[in-house]
Amino acid sequence: MNEFLEQFLVEARELVEQAVADLLALEREPGDRASLDGSFRAFHTLKGGAGIVDFAAMGRAMHAAEDVLSMVRRGDRAVTAALIGDCLACLDQVVQWLDSIEESGELPSGADAAAGRLAVRFAAGEAAIEVAKTEAPAVGGETPASATASAILREQIALLAIRGEGLEGRIASAGRVAANVFRHLGRPDVAERIADAVTESLAGPERESVARAIESAMESLNAAPAPDPIEPVANRPDPLSRSLRVDAERVDALVSLTGELTVAKNAFRHIAMLAQEGDNPLSASIGSEYGKLDRLINGLQRAVLELRILPLRRVFQRFSRLVREMSETLARPVRLVIEGEETQADKAIVEMLFEPLLHVVRNAMDHGVEPSAERAAVGKSAIATICLRARREGEHVVVEVEDDGRGIDTDRVRTVAVERGLATFDIVAGMSEGAVIDLIFMAGFSTTTDVSDLSGRGVGMDAVRASIERLGGRVQLETRKGAGAIVRFVLPFSVMMTRVMTVEAGGQWFGIPLDAVIETIRVPRHEIRSVGKAHALVLRNRTVPLIGLAATLGWAKAESSADATVVVASSGGVSGGLEVDRLGARMDVMLKPAEGLLSGIPAIAGTTMLGDGGVLLVLDVKEVFTLTTS
Amino acid sequence: MADRKMRILVVDDANLIRLYYRRILEEAGFEVEEALNGIEGLERLLVSPADALIVDINMPQMDGVTFLSALRRQALPLSSIPALVTSTESSAGDIATARAAGANFYCVKPIGREDLAGAMAMFCGVRA
Question: A170 to chain B: which residues are within 8 Å by CB?
């Protein structure tokens, strides 16, 4: 694939996303000039891109959409669901073309026919509107006249930004037009203010006063009793204007180099500590230089990781569209509320979050939200609300899907669990509500008997939990019977760094992710009870299973001491105590997947290099417990 | 409408377009003058300044962009006459070129009846 085509793919996908978001915003608020202009610009830029890569069919389709939107801009067409639908269909086609280009590296064949169909679709819409227009004036949003006025005023501001020959003429004419627009609108007072600014600007070196006068006049227009709902386009920051496009591979190379630098720094710490032990006169300065290096490298690492940070908007935006479609398919009116889409997270998380979120949203639409009649019967509003929410909590990013549907029926969960053979009746009957809800995360669980169009594809909440845990996160579920449910993903802010506690067992050092560590305790051996072959200890009236870490992993037998050192840990709903020989330092490590021979060791989440050149094995706590039980 | 009729100068080489504009604008209460290209346009303005201009981009002898650049370099008040540029091109580059030359607004042809009369009323500062 040539360079142009590659760049085209990247840009086009971003533009499609932007256009979809803008179109949906426009559908919600037909008078929103910023969304209208945004979607128009997106189609326009897509057309331009198609031209550069010689993709004429796409250029024609984009042109048709651009034409329609430009009519809306001029006030010749109203924003209707059909118009938005046509534009979205056009973008769907673009995505298909882009996928095909990505796959084959070439422009798709047969694109002409598809482009032709789209053009016909747009033309048909136009004809229908032409008829409608003569019968009734455009409904909602802004009147065409005020749209034109605002567009003309904005154009004068743009004109004033130009320097060079003919400046006085441009200032005078822009001011004259702006003043005349306000005279036309019946505001001669505002016109006079602009005219004064023109005189002032032409007399002195102050060239900006006319633009400022027009801007403030437009604001007064917006604040007037019959407000003009238009904001100047200039108020909308262009997200691309301050950004630099860098190939993801280069960023990853930088991340990798920084990782190696961290390893080298850790090695240096080892040396600094050795120097402290002897009577080395340099030890003090080595120690202080190490401190500086440590600070700088940590700063560098944070900065590098931030390069990989993206707003969750990328994922969330796709849902406006999907929920709209699902809502139509299910004939259940649903309103999607998005909160905190500016929340940022590591690229890896943003990219991986879509699938699990989609599954949860589908579940909410399919199982959570009741049909309208059922909602009306219990006095709920006919339109259900699904809220997609994100926020930063310390080192975590929390993503929630909340619905106001029927909530989870725990009795039904109990029944299904028994039917599916996941547990016996006696067990489920004695379970707490929380434990019952946890059953939903078991493999093979699904509360609908019928496989529905939307969610029942054999992928359950167990898959959701697995993919969130792969990202280093955890899933929580809250439900209020009859009032709705919240599925919450608690994810690490950055996937690269894992804070671990080091422990020694059987002469080998291991890392235990601190996320999993609940507490560390010393227990007198006589307090450890034997339950058959297994061991357990009582901790605050709770019996906690205890396993010897070294023995479980097949390492040498643990040393015996009067007291046992125990790390109480919990992961993936399993918890227990791990007996270790001693506790070591806590450290931030860059976890790498175990490779080669190490990949054969069970219960290892990954490895990281230690300062002395050794390898630290970082445990997958859940698997450690699973190894013991099986 | 104001005390006197507002005068619009249409600078376009296409007869049909000039006729179309004249019909619309006269119906809306404007007085209309015509020029076939930029040179003729400038000559007319020097004799009797108009209240607003409608300028085509593609014209023989002197195109719209050259005409506008020349106009904006004249002495005031001649250089301040509002100008609406019309073209069949809608690319950002075309709009930017027209703006740099001193166009006050840009419309892609064909222009609707109401749009044209509305824009001219705004350019001249008269009630529709």
Answer: 72, 102
- Write down the mean pLDDT value for chain A: 79
* Nearest C-alpha in A relative to B1: A184
| Chain B residue nearest residue A152, CA to CA | B105
Partner residue opposite B115 with nearest CB, options A148, A164, A179: A148
Distance CA A497, CA A230 (A): 46
The answer to whether the beta carbons of residues A170 and B102 sit under 8 Å apart is: yes
The Cα A24–Cα A325 span in angstroms is: 12
pTM of the model: 0.42
Q: Quickly count: other Cβ atoms within 10 Å of residue A190's Cβ.
A: 23
Asked if A137 has any chain B CB less than 8 Å from its own CB, the reply is no
Question: Distance between CA atoms of A173 and A191, rounded to whole angstroms?
Answer: 13
Q: Are A570 and A518 in contact (CB under 8 A)?
A: yes
Check CB contact of B72 with chain A, cutoff 8 Å: yes
For testing the chain A interface, which of B122, B123, B126 should be mutated: the one with the most A CBs within 10 Å?
B122
CA A112, A70, A175, A237 torsion: positive or negative?
Answer: negative
pLDDT in tens, A259-312: 777 767 766 776 777 777 767 777 778 888 888 888 888 888 778 877 778 888
Calpha distance A83→A81 (Å, rounded): 5
Cβ neighbours of A75 in B, within 8 Å: 115
Looking at the complex, report in whole angstroms how far the Cα of residue A147 sits from the nearest Cα belonging to chain B. Answer: 11
Q: Is a pLDDT exceeding 60 seen at residue A493? A: yes
* Interchain pair B112, A76: CB under 8 A: yes
Give the pairing of strands A396-403 and A474-480. unpaired
**Average pLDDT rounded to a whole number, residues A470-487:** 85
3-state secondary structure string across chain B: CCCCCCEEEEECCCHHHHHHHHHHHHHCCCEEEEECCHHHHHHHHHHCCCCEEEEECCCCCCCHHHHHHHHHCCCCCHHHCCEEEEECCCCHHHHHHHHHHCCCEEEECCCCHHHHHHHHHHHHCCCC
Q: Who among A44, A144, A173 is closest to B104 (CB)?
A: A173
Tell me the mean pLDDT in the region A506-523.
85
Bridge-based pairing state of the strands A574-580 and A582-590: unpaired
Residue contacts between A and B (CB atoms, under 8 Å):
108
Task: Note the ipTM here.
Answer: 0.90
Residue in chain A lying closest to B117 (CA) = A145
Q: Torsion-angle region of residue A499: left (phi > 0), alpha (psi -120 to 50) or beta? A: beta
B73 CB neighbours in chain A (<8 A) are 165-166, 169
Minimal C-alpha gap between B58 and chain A (Å): 21
Count of alpha carbons within 13 Å of B128, Cβ hemisphere only? 16
Indicate yes or no: CB of A156 within 8 angstroms of CB of B104: yes
Residue A130's φ and ψ, nearest 5 degrees, are -55, -40
Count of CB atoms situated within 10 Å of the CB of B125: 23
Least confident of A125-129, A371-375, A616-620, B95-99: A125-129
Shortest distance between the Cα of B30 and any Cα of chain A, in A, equals 14
DSSP per-residue codes, A280-293: -TTHHHHHHHHHHH
Q: Quick one: which H or E segment has residue A518? A: strand A517-524
Tell if the CB–CB gap between A158 and B99 is shorter than 8 Å: yes
CA atoms within 13 A on the CB side of A209: 15
Task: Write out chain B's pLDDT in tens, 128 residues.
Answer: 446 889 999 998 888 778 888 888 999 999 999 999 999 999 999 888 899 999 998 888 888 999 999 999 988 889 999 999 988 777 777 888 899 999 999 888 777 788 899 999 999 998 76
Chosen for mutation from A77, A176, A192, A198 (greatest number of chain B CBs closer than 10 Å) is A176
List residues bridging with A125 in a β-sheet: none
Q: Do A159 and B81 touch (CB under 8 A)?
A: no
